[in-house]
Amino acid sequence: MHATRIMLAIGVASAVAVLGSATTARATPVKPDPTATALYRKECGSCHLAFPPRMLAAEGWRRIMGGLERHFGQNAELDAPTRDLLAAHLVAYAGEPGDAGSASTRITETPWFRDEHRKAARAVSLPSVRTLANCVACHPGAEAGDFDEHRAKIPRN
Question: How many CB atoms lie within 10 A of CB 79?
Fold first, then answer.
């Protein structure tokens, strides 16, 4: 337990450094912090797919993490150290603004997503899909970050 708190404290200190520098230039660490990655999968992945950070621009992630008390109609608040660590992780690995939509907080509303999924949009009416945010309905490797279009299978019924 003590080691976990120390790792979290180190992560928060790193988060503050990354968030501070990310406002002027993108600070992308070479290798993701395994503690932040595991925590992100645990906290965010408990309710929905832990979307790869590259799917939104940094500003979108900042807006999401700054409004967790009203996260798409749900209260997803986290304690401050956890929130700060996850925010820094998401911002550090965010997508480029032009590709990921500068301030969008909905991955499904970004220009690249709409372009990539124009053929799949019809699948939303299927009970097995229901929403374009249900990535695993078409991408069997989504939970591992595999969204390769050649392995995607759009349900027909």
Answer: 8
Q: Angle 58-65/80-92 helices, nearest 10 degrees? A: 170
Where helices occur in the chain by DSSP H, the ranges are 2-22, 34-45, 58-65, 80-92, 97-100, 111-116
66-112 pLDDT, tens digit each: 999 999 999 999 999 999 999 999 999 998 876 655 678 888 888 88
Record the pTM.
Answer: 0.73
Letter string b/e over residues 116-129, b meaning 16 or more CB atoms within 10 A of that residue's CB: ebeebeebeeeeeb
Instruction: Pick left, alpha or beta for residue 84 (phi over 0 → left; psi -120 to 50 → alpha; otherwise beta).
Output: alpha
